Amino acid sequence: MARANPIDKHDARRRALVDSALRTLGELGYAKSSLREIANNSPFSHGVVHYYFQNKVELIVYCVKQYKAVCVTRYDGVVADSTTAAGLVVAFANKLCETIVDEAPMHRLWYDLRAQSMFEEYLREAAHQIDRSLEEMTWRVVTRYADLAGAETALPPLTVYGMLDGVFQQALLGYLSGQEQEALAMLRKQVSELMPLTLRSTPTDAPGVA
């Protein structure tokens, strides 16, 4: 039997630590989390956590990168399965709402990390990489929407991402403030209103268009 590669075993153990760490990080946020606090809320000792991650910055960046890498692929089904422009908008809005309901603490951690990157230089590269992957995800959705609508895109990828990320963050804030249903309903409405604005010509089957 072939021996496992030590590097592979090391990476596998780091990934195993992520699930436990994410729960604590999502609840406490960047400022209040420490390696010891994360260890106290996981099956792993402080020594084990510290062995695989030198400090909380390395752990948090690794966790958020891993989470977002999975998160962006969840919209691939929206792109692949939608057969009309209107159907894509509905599916996209529903998926955005679903991820808020299921993973609000992790989204809160991401926005916390991104805000901290404006003050902490060592977080900026990671935040930029994650932002770029989210921008690419939204652009895949919008270009598929344009294809289904038989139209050309009217806005650059960064502008589209900025608009959609803005309404998503506001919905998350409302959801975390206890206005769950109102926040989700508003997010669906705003997505249906914003998506047609990303096209040069208005698709006849887009929501909100006569």
TrEMBL record:
Pfam families membership: TetR_N
DNA-binding region of this protein: 34-53
Keywords: DNA-binding, Transcription, Transcription regulation
The UniProt record lists the keyword Transport: no
GO MF annotations in UniProt: DNA-binding transcription factor activity; transcription cis-regulatory region binding
Membrane spanning stretches: none
Source organism superkingdom: Bacteria
SUPFAM superfamilies the UniProt entry points to: Homeodomain-like
Protein name in UniProt: TetR family transcriptional regulator
Domain HTH tetR-type: 11-71
InterPro entries assigned to the protein according to its UniProt record, in alphabetical order: Homeodomain-like_sf, HTH-type_TetR-like_transc_reg, HTH_TetR
Keyword check for Ion transport: no
